[in-house]
Amino acid sequence: MDRKNFPKVAQRYLRQLADLREHIDTDAAARQIQSGIWFKGPNVWILAFSIIIASVGLNVNSTAVIIGAMLVSPLMGPIIGIGLSIGTDDMDLLKNAAKNLLVMVIISLIVSSLYFLVSPLRQNNPTELLARTSPTIYDVLIAFFGGCAGIIENARKEKGTVLSGVAIATALMPPLCTAGYGLSHLNFHYFFGAMYLFLINGIFITMATYIFVRYLHFKKHSEGDFAGDNRRRRLASALLVAFIVPSVISAIVMIRDNNFERKVDSFIQENRIIGKTYIYDYRIEKGRGRKVELRIAGRPMSGTESKQLMDLAQSYGIKDTQISMREHSIGVTREDLDAFASSIYSKLATLISNRDTTIASLKSQLDSVKSLLEARDTSLQSTDAEKNPLSNPTQAVE
Question: What are the pLDDT digits (tens) for 282-324?
């Protein structure tokens, strides 16, 4: 193949590979999406079940149960419906989808709040709840690309299991139930953080749906209004910036916290013993400033040892202003420890001296016993010779 034509051939191949026209049915997709926005009949029951499942999963800190709630939740329907309505200029669909979504959200907040009010279970470390209170730019990316996959799956002629994966990835119900937990306990950090995550998911799924509705040329409900399109674009741009900027800041904070944790962990693992002290535990304070409290046991550290510890920490990128130390000397002072050590050394020296004396005495006694034994053997030999003359030839001849 001619090298000059290779780019054109490659471009043509990639276009054929990524072409969606033969695999989609936009009319059927529009009908399916429109039928999924309504909050009535089965969707009412399914929403109630998913709220309880998600609340219980968050309450018992069970990831598997929470995933089940994501799969069951019908919240995705009206959100994709909003994206479709904006993309096709269908104002009636937009009003109905927005109204049904609002009703679903309010019911979810009320039911989950009531559940957490009556639930007797309290977790010391509710990681599943906490995980939904600090959204980052990564959640924006997940919501956007999840929405892209969702609208393509809706438009595809042969349906697969993509929507289940989108439901798990974008996670709409757990943030709402986390917000309900925040309301029930008047914990507004939980409430606003979880609602922010829910809004991020909803807005970026809507945006992804809108983009692909236009790209796939869904049939418009009315003729385009260029002035209205420009207004919508400006409004959408402002809304996206308003949601993206805090998530980027949150992601930066998360990355810095993670880097600080790794530095501290490496420092502790490689420098647990400093002189006659031992770093047995530590506690990291995240957020602004990022500090670590070292918990130290053993002999109290001298000024030189403290400086050595700080210098070592700086070599790992940890500033001395970020370190505090809590020393535990087992209830005694340094003077007490020195006196105790001196007492032990003195006792050991006495024991060693006594041992040497004992060994010398035993050696002397052993020598005496050996002398006695040798004298006895000599005496016995003389007596035997006198009693038996034949044992001595000289004496026998005489």
Answer: 888 876 678 888 888 877 777 787 888 888 888 888 888 888 8
Q: What is the CA radius of gyration of the chain?
A: 41
Closest to 185 measured CA to CA, from 246, 102, 126: 126
CA distance 326 to 131: 30
C-alpha–C-alpha distance, residues 188 and 78, integer Å = 27
**Cα–Cα distances in Å, from 245 out to 208, 229, 242, 264, 293?**
18, 24, 6, 29, 32
Sign of CA dihedral 386, 389, 393, 398: positive
Prediction pTM value:
0.68
How far is 79 from 207, CA to CA, in rounded Å?
10
Provide the 8-state DSSP code for 289.
Answer: S
pLDDT tier, 335 (very low <50, low <70, confident <90, very high otherwise): low
Could you tell me which residues come within 8 angstroms of residue 157 by beta carbon, excluding any fewer than 6 positions away?
A: 23, 24, 25, 28
